[in-house]
Amino acid sequence: MKYPEGVKKNYVHTNISHRNRGMTLEADLNVTNDYYLKQKKANIHKKPTPIKLVKVEYNIIKEAYFKEPSTTDYNGIYKGKYLDFEAKETINKTYFPLNNIHAHQIEHLRSIMEMGGIGFLIIRFTTLNETYLLKGESLLLFLSTKKTNMPYNYIKENGYLISDKYIPRVDYLQVIDQIMEEKNEKKN
Amino acid sequence: MKYPEGVKKNYVHTNISHRNRGMTLEADLNVTNDYYLKQKKANIHKKPTPIKLVKVEYNIIKEAYFKEPSTTDYNGIYKGKYLDFEAKETINKTYFPLNNIHAHQIEHLRSIMEMGGIGFLIIRFTTLNETYLLKGESLLLFLSTKKTNMPYNYIKENGYLISDKYIPRVDYLQVIDQIMEEKNEKKN
Questions:
Q1: How far from chain centre, in Å, is Cα A153?
Q2: What is the pLDDT of residue A22?
Q3: In terms of Cα–Cα distance, which of B46, B2, B4, B108 is closest to A65?
Q4: From CA B148, how far away is CA B72, in angstroms rounded?
Q5: Do B7 and A54 touch (CB under 8 A)?
Q6: Which residue from B minimizes the CA distance to A60?
Q7: Which residue in chain B is spatially nearest to A113 when comparing CA positions?
Q8: Does the beta-carbon distance from B112 to A43 stay under 8 Å?
Q9: Helix or strand or coil: residue B26?
Q10: What are the Cα distances from residue A133, in Å, to A83, A116, B36, B85?
């Protein structure tokens, strides 16, 4: 479970200790999306975490629960196209565990692609310090094998390595440009 | 402030009493969007309300606050196009108070339109039982007058009345089809 910065955590899940090593993927994507917006290049946002409110007193939430999201976390518009993706990081070096992505989110990505949108994953191997963009098509192809862990090599071979920069930090739109070009070449 | 159903409200704002009269616009849009999704017509969702978490104990939120949204509430894809809108209802009969829409949300709609997306408002006059779709262009045009209340007549003349149906309840994509046709006619 992710907690934004500044949250008092009485219960800290042990597998989030790697966060202290540097910026999280979420934080990197936030500054990247802010940069894209200021440059008038794209308008892409992270959706707020869905919450089930139970008790609210004088506009202060006193009891609420995290809900499972029914869509991916990020969507927006780039070059007139609808973009939609989920971003995940893993400390594993040899595979990405697919239970990180909920069934709803996979169905959502499938639906987006059927409707002509660009659906994808951004996967960071934190230990290797490598971030990949994996097209929705490659995700669905792998899921058809019914395997629960996606090997690092599958992502390395079928995904696109996102170069690590200072500004913008995770320049995934550079990869989207490449994908759009490849699609145009196929058409012609 | 809107509370989802089932929330214990210790503080009830007086202007939400009209909600008891029938379905709210938000609920109507939720069932409409569910219908569109099931029909594979469009994939449009309401974003969760942004929350600032302060205290979380064993995955239960014990203290949190509502944050002002930086985007509109609804976005998604229809016929390959990026759609983005805000939905509001008012009990006024003669005007729609523009302080219902935050400055951030207006800038967001402006940005979406500049990038080739379709941005609009859905406004319901609950007392009149009339729901209108107002194009982002008509909103920005009115805002340039610096007036704070948008007259009902402006919306009636420049907006599109959304017909009240059983299924889907608020068929706003019918209006979007009309707007897309008008745009194509202008091009030709």
A1: 19
A2: 53
A3: B4
A4: 19
A5: yes
A6: B65
A7: B80
A8: yes
A9: helix
A10: 13, 18, 29, 29
Q: Looking at the predicted structure, is the pLDDT value of residue B124 above 60?
A: yes
* Positive or negative torsion for Cα A47, A52, A57, A63: negative
**3-state secondary structure at position B111:** helix
Each residue of A54-113: pLDDT tens digit?
A: 999 999 999 999 998 889 999 999 999 999 999 999 999 999 999 999 999 999 999 999
Do residue A40 and residue B114 have CB atoms under 8 angstroms apart?
Answer: yes
- Residue B19, CA distances (Å) to A85, B12, B28, B92 in order: 35, 12, 12, 14
Q: Which residues contact A102 (CB under 8 A, 6 or more apart)?
A: A68, A69
Q: Where are the beta strands (DSSP E) in A58-152?
A: 60-66, 74-78, 81-90, 95-97, 118-125, 130-135, 149-151
Identify all chain A residues contacting B48, using CB atoms and an 8 Å cutoff: 47-51
Contacts of B82 in chain A (CB under 8 A): 76-77, 80-82
Contacts of B62 in chain A (CB under 8 A): 62-63
What mean pLDDT is predicted for residues B3-30? 56
Test the A interface: residue of B35, B41, B49, B53 with most A CBs within 10 Å? B53
Q: Do A66 and B61 touch (CB under 8 A)?
A: yes
Question: In the predicted model, is pLDDT for residue A4 greater than 90?
Answer: no
CA-CA distance, A173 to A42, in Å (whole number)? 9
